[in-house]
Design brief:
Order of helices and strands: EHEHHEHEHEHEHEHHEEEEEHEE
Bound molecules: N,N,N-trimethyl-histidine
Number of strands: 14
Oligomer: single chain
Structural class: alpha/beta
Strand order of the largest sheet: 1-5-4-3-6-7-14-13
Length: about 325
C-alpha cells in the first residue's frame, strides 16, 4: 500500500516572507555583510543545487549515496526494536532517503517518513518520489529544522525507534558552537536509543575543495547570485546581479569553505521590503555561506559531546566523506 497524497503542514514559525525581510535587513547590515544560506533554496535555487550535485567537481552527494546504498541494511539493522519512523532534515529531492529505504528496510514493515525542509518545491518532489514505495506513509513539514522537529516530536506515535537523518553535510552550514547546539536540540526531540545518522564532508586538498565550490561551469556562481535575484523579486530589491562576483575561499584556520558575493565597484542598493538603503564598496563582500569540513574523529566527538553514542561509521576514502551513525543516550 502506498500513500498517494502525502500529508503536509506549514508551521506558523516558518521562515515566511516577513522572516526573510527581517533576516535580510539584519544580516546585510552586519560587518562583514552576510546573508543566511538557508535562503538559497527557492524553486530555482533548489534546481541549481540539484545541478551542483551532478557536477563532476561536487562529489558530496554521489559519495554519500554510495555509502547509503552499500550500508543501508546495516544502518536499519543496527536498531534492535526496529525503526518505524525516519525523519529527514533538509533532505532536498528525497533521493538519498529513497536509496537508504530501498537498501535497508525489511520488506513488509510499515514506515513513517517525516520530511522537514524549508523548500516547498523540494518537499513536493520528494514526497511524490517516496510515495511510490510500498508501506510507506509520507508527511512533509515546510518549516525550519527547529520548528519541524518540534512538530514531529508532538506527533510522535509509534512504539518503534525513530531514525533521524541529517545528511549531505548540511551540518557544515553551522559554525561549531551552532552545530553543537543544534545536535543537542535534536537529542532533546528524541527518545533514548533513537538513532541519528549524519553525513559530514571531510577536509581534503584545497584544490578539490575550491573546484567543488567554484566550478568551471559557473553553476555554483549562479546558485550564489540567485540569492540576489530572490531578494530583488520577493523584497523589491534593486541589486545589479551582474555586478557581483562569486568567490569561494578555503579558510583553513576555521576548517570551512566560504562563499561570498563580491561587489564590482561602489554601488547603491535599495531593498524596500527590508527597509534597506546602503552603499556597498568596491571589493566589499556579502558572505553567503560557510561549509565546515570535518575529520572522521571530529564528527564522532561532536556527537559524543551532544548526548549520543557512536554506533558505527563508514567512510568514502576516494571522495572524503563520512556517514556516522549514533544513538541517543
Ligand atoms: C547543502 C549545505 C551541504 O555546503 O556543500 C553546495 C550547499 N553550496 N555548493 C554545501 C552548497 C555550494 C551544500 N550543503
Amino acid at each position: 500500500m502506498s500513500e498517494m497524497s502525502p500529508v503536509s503542514s506549514r508551521a506558523p514559525a516558518d521562515p515566511s516572507d516577513a522572516q526573510f525581510a527581517t533576516d535580510v535587513q539584519y544580516y546585510l547590515m552586519q560587518q562583514p555583510r552576510q546573508l543566511p544560506s538557508r535562503y538559497f533554496y527557492d524553486a530555482l535555487g533548489s534546481s541549481l543545487f540539484e545541478a551542483i550535485c551532478r557536477l563532476p567537481w561536487y562529489r558530496v552527494t554521489r559519495a554519500e549515496t554510495r555509502l547509503l546504498a552499500a550500508h543501508g541494511r546495516e544502518i536499519f539493522d543496527a536498531f534492535g526494536r526496529g525503526v518505524d519512523t525516519v525523519v529527514e532534515l533538509g533532505g532536498g529531492n528525497g533521493q538519498k532517503l529513497m536509496t537508504l529505504v530501498q537498501a535497508g528496510r525489511r520488506p513488509a514493515s510499515r514506515l513513517e517518513l517525516r520530511l522537514i525542509d524549508v523548500s516547498a518545491s523540494a518537499l513536493a518532489s520528494s514526497a511524490r518520489a517516496l510515495s511510490v514505495l510500498d508501506g510507506v506513509h509520507v508527511v512533509t513539514y515546510e518549516a525550519s529544522y527547529e520548528a519541524g522537529l518540534a512538530e514531529v516530536r508532538a506527533a510522535r506515535a509509534g512504539s518503534g525507534r525513530t531514525l533521524t537523518l541529517f545528511l549531505g553535510s548540511n551540518i557544515g552550514n553551522f559554525d561549531p558552537p551552532g552545530a553543537g547546539a543544534f545536535l543537542r536540540g535534536i537529542r532533546a526531540a528524541l527518545a533514548r536509543d533513537d538513532g541519528l545518522l549524519i553525513g559530514t564532508d571531510l577536509v581534503k586538498p584545497e584544490r578539490a575543495l575550491l573546484l567543488a565550490y567554484d566550478d568551471p561551469l559557473g553553476v555554483t556562481a549562479a546558485f550564489n547570485r540567485n540569492l540576489l535575484v530572490r531578494i530583488n523579486r520577493e523584497l523589491g530589491g534593486d541589486f545589479d546581479v551582474n555586478a557581483f562576483s562569486h568567490r569561494a575561499v578555503w579558510n583553513a584556520g576555521a576548517s570551512r569553505v566560504e562563499m561570498h558575493l563580491v561587489s564590482r565597484g561602489r554601488q547603491h542598493v535599495t531593498v524596500p521590503a527590508a527597509t534597506l538603503d546602503f552603499e556597498i564598496e568596491d571589493g566589499e563582500s556579502i558572505w553567503t555561506e560557510s561549509s565546515y569540513k570535518y575529520d572522521p574523529e571530529g564528527s564522532v566527538r561532536m556527537l559524543e559531546a551532544t548526548g549520543f553514542r557512536l554506533v558505527d561509521q563508514w567512510i568514502d576514502v576516494e571522495d572524503g566523506f563520512a556517514l556516522t551513525l549514533a544513538e541517543a543516550v
